[in-house]
Amino acid sequence: MGREKAVPVTVLTGFLGAGKTTILNAVLSAPRGQKRYGVIVNEFGAIGVDGSLVIGADEDVIELANGCLCCSVRGDLIGALETLLERGGELDAILVETTGLADPGPIAATFLLDDDLSDRVRLDGVVTVLDAVHVERQLAEEDVAASQIAFADLLVLAKSDIVNPAQRLAAEEAARALNSAAPLLRSELGDLDIEALFGLRAYDLNTSRLGFSAVPAVDGARSSHAMSCVSLTLDRSLDPARFMDWMQDLVRARGRSILRSKGVVSLQGEDRRLVFQGVQTMLDGDVRERWAPDEDRRSRLVFIGRDMDKAELQAGLEACIAHPSTAPQRCRPVAAS
After folding, report:
1. Structural domain containing residue 307
2. Domain CobW C-terminal, which positions (predicted)?
3. Which residue in 194, 158, 171 sits closest to 35, CA to CA?
4. Is 172 found in the same domain as 128?
5. How large is the C-alpha radius of gyration of the chain?
6. Do 156 and 213 belong together in one domain?
């Protein structure tokens, strides 16, 4: 199929009772026009598919009148994706619901590690649904709830209409302490723009889609889970070989604690930007678009994970600064796993 034609997949996660079912029902019941979505769920019964919409069904797949297909996971995720692709014809996007106790990291890794799968589908992003009523308690009691938020490319605050402004702000601040890089949407009275869940391109190396405009100037505060979001900037070009070695050493040594990483980097002797992204120990990157003549060429990096030491990371980055007397070395693609 080719990477450019691969079907985008959105992973929908969130703790038990967060409101994923409401969002899934909205996807399955809303008229989609010419678009056809596939949805992978754990159990058909759990989401209560509207019987009036069903025009065909078997053990694994339900076909709906609005063009959506709903597939249940009866084995591994890859098998469910293959079933959906074989039965679904051309799909515009696929939404995968995780269980409320799932860590999205291994799920995301599935798409990055399976070369055969990556030719047919691509990971578009991780959407985490938060329960505005209970998220603070869940974070205090469950580590996986923190991982779900830290891994998100988009946060959806559900039930925000049934809490007072102070509670809503507290819920948002709790999420921001873990992940200040992901945009946050409020879902009130179950009303949410379904299109906002798709087209995130969070794993696309196209620099215009990396979402750095969403990263605030102030890093997320360290939470009780020792998770935080650290953003780094540097206004001097980096030595290509030194930077590659530093990043690969970093993910080898700290990859399990770094849930996500991404960056746009200015390299000595290179008029194109280096773009990279990582999921724990997996790192991918390459030089991409040329810098515009008047463009801000500062390097910008984001790390989300446990026990992030900003001073240590900043020092490591600054150690990669290129010196004028050093001949620039050719950039090689970033790769680590």
Report:
1. 207-336
2. 227-321
3. 194
4. yes
5. 21
6. no
